[in-house]
Amino acid sequence: MDVIKIARRAYAISWLSWLELSNWTNPLIFTIYVLIRPLFTLLLYAYIYVAFAISSGYSNPASAFYMVTGISFYNYIGSGIYGVAWVIHEEREHYRLLKYNYLAVPDLMFYLTSRGLIHYLIGLALSLVTLPIGLWLVSYDLSSLQVNLPLILINLILGYLWCTSLGIMVSAISLFSAEWGPLIAESTGGLLFLVGSVLFPAQSLPWWMQPLVNAIPMREWMELTRFALNPQYPIRADFLLQMEVIKTSLYLLCSFVFFKIMDKLVRMKGYLEATTEH
Amino acid sequence: MYSIETIELSRTFKRNKGRLIYALRDVNIKVRKGEIFGLLGPNGAGKTTLIRILATLLLPTSGKAYVLGYDVVGEANKVREVINVVSGGERSGYGIMTVKENLWYFTQLYGLSRRDGWRKVRELIELLGMEDFADIRLNRLSTGMIQKYNLARGLINDPKVLFLDEPTLGLDVEVAKYIRRLIRKLIKEDPERTIFLTTHYMAEAEELCDRIAIIHKGRIVALGSPEQLKKMICDELVYKLEVKGIYSKLGERLKEAGFSKAVSSKSDITTGLTSLRMVLSSEEEAEEVVKWLIGSGYKVISISKVEPSLEDVFLKLVGGKLSEE
Amino acid sequence: MRSRITLLLKVAYARAYVRIKGGNREPSWVVWEILLPLLAVASVAYTYMILGAPREYIGFVVIGGAMISYWFNVIWGMGNALYWEKETGNLETFMITPAPLEGLLLGMALGGMFNTTLRALSIVLVGTMAFKASFNPSGLPAAFLIFVLTMVALYSLGMCIASIFLMYSRSGWRAAEVLQEPIMFLSGLYYPISIFPTLIQLLASSIPLTIGMDGIRRSLLLGYNLYDLRFHVISLSVMIPVLAYLAKRMLRYMELRAKVEGRLTLRWM
User: Fold this and answer.
1) b or e along B209-219 (b: 16 or more beta carbons within 10 Å of the residue's beta carbon)?
2) What is the CA radius of gyration of chain A?
3) CB contact A180 to C (< 8 Å)
4) Cα–Cα–Cα angle for C61, C62, C63, nearest 5°?
5) Can you give the pLDDT at residue B325?
6) Any idea where the domains of chain C sit in the sequence?
7) Is B288 exposed, middle or buried (0-12, 13-18, 19+ CB in 10 A)?
């Protein structure tokens, strides 16, 4: 395996992603563009707490911490999953280049993984920017934070792996749909938001949704992130970390097999270059 | 070993109500290394489907296909390393990036080092004469410039088999000529390279190709060098007739009247004439045609015997001109 | 004049037909278009339930979720329409016909509205059944009037946005993305805007969606009648001609500028 060649490809693909995201304007406007959405998303959801909880006397720092960390760190996963899952639609429908990229890289999965990288980095930066703002907004005592950097790093890597694997599986589905690619990408993000213990504990969802909650490592990821920021956060970190590692490994394997099957099937059906034009 | 080999290659598509459409039917072709091989056929004949299968973008329904000995189904990755595809009428790059940036991006996808990548970009810009627009974004380029870029991108990995799908489609005469010259140069420079070309333009195929396959409704109906193909009608005579007036259906009427099936007609409103091209078996048959035309009230201006061309082979095999299909 | 209106309506019908027919060609659309957009609404509804909020809050979320679908349709189905027509090369073909551009936009909007309405209805239905949101049926006539006025105002605003897309396709696309969350926040998607500071309330009131959402909530959740909602009706009725006039002027101006600068047929992808 030629590691340098792989790294070179990954760099070029990430560079493309970066240009695609940013070369329409100057750096200042781009920074504002990148910041506005997550900041308003933070306001949108934090206000649920600010407006309702505080005004009704339900001031609870633990809830505030829960919601703000959830919204902030969702940026990492949300941006990453969208960055990966949107690629098929974008390359095929917008740029009409899916076939040329398909021919030029040894593996489309590798292409998707590399295209997502920059989105994770931007997502991480946004998480780090929105976290203090959000905590300030809900008047959370910042001194109670004790960051466990190694755990954060491990969790970020695991998050990248399982989330990208999920993105690859979603992309494999969107290979078959010229029309619904964007909705599939957005909906996956929405699903993670709902079942991933972002705003509220996923255990509160109805029983019939619990298999889905358990099937996705998002809950473990979110809870471990909170624990890595505040060691007082009451969870069984060791157990959750083990579960996340196991699920991530399974996701890697499943995404590989699933994508290979779908790749073959899509060429069988002749949908690789299908576009909508309406 | 052949550069391209297909064995009983077929591909069907399901259309409305489960109806099967045969895009390719039992295609058998063998393309040698160093050849410019042309695939000629009207729209929907199966040309692009064949290229898509050979380029690993589509799987065949049945049969086998090999590129440089690699199975296009089982060894797709190996095939992709040695081929490239250039399609006319498309833009194979990102409109938001310049010609240089796009080319460099693709050099990296093909695994070239940073330095080699930039060297390759410079080489290709020089080869294609793109110096004037190398720093312009793709969305600002004219059709001719885009096609030059497309060709440059197609040469990034020095492909041993280059698929050119209608490479001069929609281009002006000068650019089309330039591209045809380049295609010949590519083969001259590397005799191991093979070019598989599909085209609508008969003259282009005749000028460029060592061998030509004519495809119609998914089947290969003839295969050989332009000379061999022309010999297919050496026992027959080709006539050109001019009739006064605009009669768009005249060719069909002649076919209905029982004359040769190989008739093409073209009306020109500027001259007010309808030209016919017919492949006939004898001079007597030509006389019959003229008699029939006069008897039916048409005014025949001229009739002349012409040298058979590849167009007439196509006319005889398919029953119409390429553009009429 | 009459023939021009007839042509506009014909164009709108034809474009809507393409949108609906094409959009629903894949049977999976039911899943993606209807079920999955419920996810965000469900997330917030659960949050309120866990925080122990009164039932009205769930109603706020459900109505907000349904109404915001139309805003998305305005941005992506209408504003984005011209950009997409341009990218696919259809705009060029369209512009050389005598058909009015407004007809094309109206058609895209109406076509998109079909699926959007299904999405909105499914949010209301699921919200009512799963989250036990309750509505006051006596408020329906007032809610309907406010809904219609809001839509006319909103789609006029959509035409203004479309004109920006016509000129600045890629930047326009990014601008539309950037507008999404601020409008969600300012329109009071998940809570009444009365919780905002006065200045933000004033700013928010300039968006037709905010007034529409508030009016419909008051009618369907609190049982307000038309008289109680007269200020909502008046505000929207004033906004409509202003926005419609602005849309027409902007569309013409941007079309002219796009032609002068050669951007009318410039694809960025």
Assistant:
1) bbbbbbbbbbb
2) 20
3) yes
4) 95
5) 41
6) 2-260
7) middle
> Chain A, 187-246: which have a CB under 8 Å from a chain C CB?
187, 190-191, 193-194, 198-201, 204-205
Q: Measuring CA to CA, which residue among C205, C187, B165 is closest to residue A100? A: B165
* pLDDT tens, residue by residue, A115-139: 999 999 999 999 999 999 999 988 8
Residue A41 clears pLDDT 60, i.e. is over it: yes
Distances in Å between the Cα of B70 and the Cα atoms of B1, B83, B192, B318 are 10, 11, 16, 33
**Amino acid residing at C203:** L
Phi, psi of A139 (to 5 degrees): 55, 45
- What is the rounded distance in angstroms from the CA atom of residue C222 to the CA atom of residue C235? 20
Output the CA–CA distances (angstroms, integers) from residue B227 to B35, B203, B233, B277, B310, in the order listed: 15, 13, 10, 20, 8
**What residue ranges define each of the domains in chain B, with the CATH number in brackets?**
4-226 (3.40.50.300), 235-307 (3.30.70.260)
**Cβ <8 Å between A180 and C43:** no
Task: At C52, list the tokens.
Answer: 């122990």
Residue A2 has pLDDT above 90, yes or no: no
Tokens of A97: 């280049």
Tell me how many residue pairs between chain A and chain B have CB atoms under 8 A apart. 76
State the Cα–Cα distance between residues A246 and A248, nearest whole angstrom. 5
For B57, the closest chain A residue by CA position comes to: A267
Angle (CA) C166-C170-C173 rounded to 5° is 80
Q: Which amino acid type is present at position C132?
A: K
Q: Bridge partners of B37?
A: B196, B211
B195: tokens are 């070019």
Give mean pLDDT, residues C21-26. 66
Identify the DSSP state of B98: B
> What is the C-alpha separation between B254 and B278, in angstroms, rounded?
10
Contacts of A95 in chain C (CB under 8 A): 269
Distance CA B139, CA B131 (A): 17
Asked whether B25 and B45 are in contact (CB, 8 A), the reply is no
What is the spatial distance between Cα C262 and Cα C269, in angstroms, rounded to a whole number? Answer: 16
Please provide the distance, in angstroms rounded to a whole number, between the alpha carbons at the two ends of chain C.
38
DSSP 3-state assignment of C141? helix
Q: Tell me what ipTM this predicted complex has.
A: 0.83
